[in-house]
Amino acid sequence: MLFKSQKKFQKKAVTTISVMIASCAFCWLNPAQAQTVVSQTHIAQASASNISNAELEQFVKVHAQLVAIDKQTTQQMIDVIQQEGMTIDRFNVIGNWIINSTDSKEAPTPPVSQAEMESFKKVVAKITPLQEQAEAKMKQVFATEKFEVERYKQIFEAVRTDPKLQNQVQQMLQK
């Protein structure tokens, strides 16, 4: 059995790799994927009418930097997983099994071998610092750009749900 602290790190890493790979970080063009990134329960409503052009430009600038950080980190995580001889799918299957092991006694199919579990632990140990570095970089982007995380989330949600705003942001990103 894993120690609780190991399980916590593994849960965080598995969730991160699953979300990062599945969502391509903050990609609002697919609302189903964006739901995993932005929780509506914590976001005050923002609409196109209360977002200034300057604020939207700042959002786009921050968003582009966050996406770049995410792409780099995701690739690094994928490389680590593959260097350990695992596939992304198998890594996620094992991780989800560990996360849900308190709820279910069912093992994944095929069963997890001791060698796979050791590889999984090595991957988690290597990708956890990558995730922490990415989070620090993202926080730095917000600090450098003087843009509040909560406001970013509000605008993100507005963009995700407003096709006109999506088009406006896409045009800004293409410049």
Characteristic key phrases:
mainly alpha; elongated; 175 residues; 7 helices; disordered N terminus
Notes on the structure:
Residues 41-96, 108-169 form the DUF4168 domain. It comes from Gloeothece verrucosa (strain PCC 7822) (Cyanothece sp. (strain PCC 7822)). Pfam families: DUF4168 (PF13767). The structure is a single chain. The protein is mostly helical and 175 residues long. The protein has one domain. Helix content is 73%, strand content 0%. It contains seven helices and no strands. α1 crosses α4 (88-99). It starts with a helix and ends with a helix. Mean pLDDT is 78; it is low at 1-11 and 18-44.
Overview in brief:
By secondary structure, the chain is mostly helical. Helices cover 73% and strands 0% of the residues. It is built from 7 helices and no strands.
The number of domains is 1
Number of helices: 7
Largest sheet: none
Helix/strand/pairing class, anyone? mainly alpha
- Report the average pLDDT across residues: 78
What distance separates the N and C termini? 52 Å
Name the beta content range.
Answer: under 5%
Radius of gyration: 18 Å
Number of strands: 0
N-to-C series of helices and strands: HHHHHHH
Helix content: over 70%
Q: Given the C-alpha coordinates, what overall shape results?
A: elongated
Low-confidence stretches: 1-11, 18-44
InterPro entries: DUF4168
Keywords: Signal
Protein name: DUF4168 domain-containing protein
